[in-house]
TrEMBL record:
<keyword id="KW-0032">Aminotransferase</keyword>
<dbReference type="GO" id="GO:0047804">
    <property type="term" value="F:cysteine-S-conjugate beta-lyase activity"/>
</dbReference>
<comment type="similarity">
    <text>Belongs to the class-II pyridoxal-phosphate-dependent aminotransferase family. MalY/PatB cystathionine beta-lyase subfamily.</text>
</comment>
<dbReference type="InterPro" id="IPR015422">
    <property type="entry name" value="PyrdxlP-dep_Trfase_small"/>
</dbReference>
<dbReference type="InterPro" id="IPR015424">
    <property type="entry name" value="PyrdxlP-dep_Trfase"/>
</dbReference>
<dbReference type="InterPro" id="IPR015421">
    <property type="entry name" value="PyrdxlP-dep_Trfase_major"/>
</dbReference>
<feature type="domain" description="Aminotransferase class I/classII large">
    <location>
        <begin position="55"/>
        <end position="397"/>
    </location>
</feature>
<dbReference type="InterPro" id="IPR004839">
    <property type="entry name" value="Aminotransferase_I/II_large"/>
</dbReference>
<dbReference type="GO" id="GO:0008483">
    <property type="term" value="F:transaminase activity"/>
</dbReference>
<keyword id="KW-0663">Pyridoxal phosphate</keyword>
<dbReference type="InterPro" id="IPR027619">
    <property type="entry name" value="C-S_lyase_PatB-like"/>
</dbReference>
<dbReference type="GO" id="GO:0030170">
    <property type="term" value="F:pyridoxal phosphate binding"/>
</dbReference>
<protein>
    <recommendedName>
        <fullName>cysteine-S-conjugate beta-lyase</fullName>
        <ecNumber>4.4.1.13</ecNumber>
    </recommendedName>
</protein>
<keyword id="KW-0456">Lyase</keyword>
<keyword id="KW-0808">Transferase</keyword>
<dbReference type="InterPro" id="IPR051798">
    <property type="entry name" value="Class-II_PLP-Dep_Aminotrans"/>
</dbReference>
<dbReference type="Pfam" id="PF00155">
    <property type="entry name" value="Aminotran_1_2"/>
</dbReference>
Amino acid sequence: MNSFNFSKLENRQNTMSIKWDKREAIFGNKDILPLWVADSDWQTAPLIKAELIKRAQTGIFGYSFPNQSIKTTIYNWLKNRFDLEIEKEWLVFGTGVVPAINFALKTITKANEAVIIQPPVYRPFFEAVKNNNCQLIKNNLVKKNNYYQMDLVQLKKQIKAHKKKGIKVKALIFCSPHNPVGRVWKKKELLALLRLLKKEDIYLLSDEIHADLVYSNYQHQPLLKLLLAKAEFKEYRKKVISFMSASKTFNIAGLHTSYTLIEAKELRKAYQKTKAGFATSNSPFGLLALKTAYNEGEKWLEAQLKYLEANYRFLQKYIKENIKEIKVSKAEGTYLVWLDCSQLGFTSDQKLIEFMNQKAGVGLNPGIWFGKESGSMHLRLNLACPQARLKKALTKIKKAVKNRSK
Ligand SMILES: Cc1ncc(COP(=O)(O)O)c(C=O)c1O
């Protein structure tokens, strides 16, 4: 099929890997099979690896900066993959999406203003709001038949209620595609959200780190593309910040390189000023990996997407046939799968987590990490691993569930 090998069981132990080498500290079980942290268990694309080896051989690792050529590379990637046409000057480089979101909030908010998130959602969104002394508005997604949607009716009500109390609702942090539920938001859903936020004059911080990880038949819509296409958003565009990275797509998260897109000059300047006080320059390895990924990595990405999709189909079938108590949310993208475990019958989240860690011996993210109520009795599984490893994990869960009901 292709020469890329996603099936090889790489040994990541003793590499200071968070996923593998922190098992005892996190799960209290050093032998647990880890399918949690959002990185992949396979090597990055061979061309990226080769370029990094070449760079390492120079032996010179001084300070680096993103030059025009890497900006052109990003321009081309966004144009070719999403038909999004940016201006290169909108780009602000950084060492991660999480710090970038924090810098953005620090730039635009004042203490006690409110920021909306849509749980269950990536935990650092909650923390970013807290870090900036803002009030958190949780507008939970709603689930119907294991399929999640945004609740804009409830969102409108919450904005109104806060306004009534004299609290300024300043921003919404958006996850697109959505971690952990795997939704790839449709154009119609995005336009409805944009129109509501525009009307209410609320900033939109759009985390699109999973943009490239979308299953066939789905298409990621960058918010910027929708905004640029419609005259009605000409002014509102000034309130939108997008965050992107090649880190999940090409398994280079440890190289800490991301980029933020800010069209409005004043806002961009203010953001850069905030960032300058805290952030360091990018690593030469991170910049090189990003550039090589976007210039040469498309074939590898397409092969990886096929592998991920096959893993997802495998998981769905396996669980349906063997672990009927677990319901798999319909995933449209990301390599993360959201599992509804409520029918396993545990009386507390702690018991569910202990069961998975100690009886099944599989390390998954507790659902409550993504939202106390919205994530209760759920677990998140990362399927970016060889299918044999995924099968082993599912077999362990199946056995533990069977033994429990004996
Ligand atoms: C939605 C989302 N945003 C951000 C990150 C992390 O980004 P970074 O490592 O660039 O800070 C992750 C990692 O899992 C994620 O899922």
